[in-house]
């Protein structure tokens, strides 16, 4: 009860802070404050920073014909400017106003693409440049737009006449002053960090006094030290955020070098930590493990970032600050969540996934978490974030962490995670020829009175993953048979895997031209049920799950095993 009260107090404190932020933002966007964003217009862009994000000239052609494939949705404008039409999809609008799609015009490399880019920027300035409100001026979107306009200024300004050139630079200057005034009070998370990155880009790319660059550099360093953990993870515990922030930090480091300026040590250190962290979360097929907001992976995007990784050797196996463990032997990779929930402030995408794991063999995934449908309907997000959507145990079909379902709260904060494990203990048990760990969390203690402990061991050159799930009351007292001790352990199977039963009634996980694995359990007969895999590149897909269901008062400890019985392209290995 005390923990619940503490979580509720923390939640309403955040609501009050966010309400105050939005009030101040409205005031600062009003006529009383707006004069502060006027000032000297820069004479020119000194340098266009590089952009590492993938570009497709075909998308530039689609945009020319009025078709905007943004944020997973295609909108046809019918000859109108996209800034004139009302599209109810918030994600599409944010992407439109963020202008990252300018990279596709740059990739096209034609005068037509440059003219179209210039026309669209001119439309934005005319329709939104002097009216600070709505999605277009959300601080996170403004930060993206500043970075994109600077990175692709050479395309936008190609062949531009002087009036547009001045209007462009004047608008950039106003956006920078606005973002500088808002950055201090932005809520914690990647948007605040990106705002500091955008201001550092601006201080390097435009004529500015040395004091402006020193201030931007100092503020960036402080934010990096706060948000990037010692093992390279982000405070949100979302692997995708590591990828997204690296895509901005690497070009920023290059821009410091191009301008003969010394980057802050915090920037160098953050990149040096984050590149190995990105490899830590990566399966052998190049995709990232589906934890805490991670959905489908665009493999080429990761490959582009990792070209800048000079780290030699295999990825690290232990990420204690981020709260993850990795086992990797003989082409088998296991990645597990062994951490506390992230701070409430940055938990909008966090999952109730404590002690969940994923297993891949070669380039094929076998046991997965459901992940999220990045561009799908918002109403499915709670399902994807629940414990039942992960390869771990639930008690009485309840998640190990709670989410806010208050409409008033969600309108201000999204849907933060407001309860969950308070203590997670984890210990590596590596030995010669064996990698493993034991972890335990107390997320179910307040409601049901017992702990969940999981041990995983990968051995036999990656051919055997042995698991043990144990349920106990604090102090090792016996679990009572009170109707509140029903346990379900789930193993979500990737939709590309065929789940069969062999002549010994064992469950066989097989795929074409891939390894074959057999699932067995000692104390409980496994069952097969339907499931949903949300993180497919084409959207949600039907899948199946292996389920172990029992009462903890009758079976307090379950042993199970995944055994690789044949390796693709090699003789059967028994």
From TrEMBL:
Residues 313-561 form the Heparinase II/III-like C-terminal domain. Keywords: Lyase, Periplasm, Signal. InterPro entries: Chondroitin_lyas, Hepar_II_III_C. One of its GO terms (cellular component) is periplasmic space. Its main location: periplasm. It comes from the Bacteria. Pfam families: Hepar_II_III_C. It is found in: Periplasm. Gene3D superfamilies: 2.70.98.70, Chondroitin AC/alginate lyase. GO terms for molecular function: lyase activity. This is Putative heparinase superfamily protein. It comes from Rhizobium loti (Mesorhizobium loti).
